[in-house]
């Protein structure tokens, strides 16, 4: 991986489609996403609950699955076409990290399962179920898939995932070389390795990031992020969290990397959730030059007063 990497111009992955979170307290996790973040429950099957945010085109973006421990069940990517899916499956199989096909799940058709080099579970598919709002949930705006909910402070859409890794470089290169992600920003360690990488397949700064796992074995979830689009809503939802005894880890604040405005909380099942007040900036340059950060940058930003510019 280098700042001048040739990405090969692979345009086969379109977006982050959904995420499965494991939770030891399904009903409390459901309450958090439904009643505080305003998400809509769309299905229940085999003990799992499926939800959506009101500005999403597909049926569901979040699956909550009962489990002894919190964590990532899987992250799912949508291909740009049936042929694009075939190409990415062939590329994944060549790495030895493919696991084979599943028939599908609520909201999507056949999917190919695979892992990152550190075991994060993922899948990729083409066929999806587009959301059709029932009468009582239809918006007066033709370009809004669902009426804005009147409960909590409703999130608008799934934004990104952030994963822990021991070998950040290897995981980043897998996403780039196998799936066509582009490197947007990165933290270079004093040792010469990488402390973090931010990658995307769209004009967003990232749909996925990998952070060095100092305390664990890698292969873990750092957080899942949902997007508001309006910074003031971070203060509104923060107030709601305080009233309901939801632990706020950090924020509202300002990231240096990505320049986004975040708030971090832990949902009752134990998963870290980030909420974005905005996305920072968008990338339209086809020959983007990845932004290099050093550990000195991060430490200096943390020590400065005023608005915290967080890595």
From TrEMBL:
Q: Which PROSITE patterns match?
A: VOC
Q: Which residues form the VOC domain?
A: 15-127, 157-278
Superkingdom assignment: Bacteria
Repeat among the record's keywords? yes
In the UniProt record, the signal sequence range is none
Tell me yes or no: is NAD among this UniProt entry's keywords.
no
Q: Which UniProt keywords apply?
A: Dioxygenase, Oxidoreductase, Repeat
* Entry-linked Pfam families: Glyoxalase
Q: Which CDD domains does this UniProt record tie to the protein?
A: BphC-JF8_N_like
The GO terms this record gives for MF are: catechol 2,3-dioxygenase activity; ferrous iron binding
The identity of this protein, by name, is Catechol 2,3-dioxygenase
Q: Which InterPro entries match?
A: Catechol_2-3_dOase, Glyas_Bleomycin-R_OHBP_Dase, Glyas_Fos-R_dOase_dom, GlyoxalaseI/FosfomycinResist, VOC_core
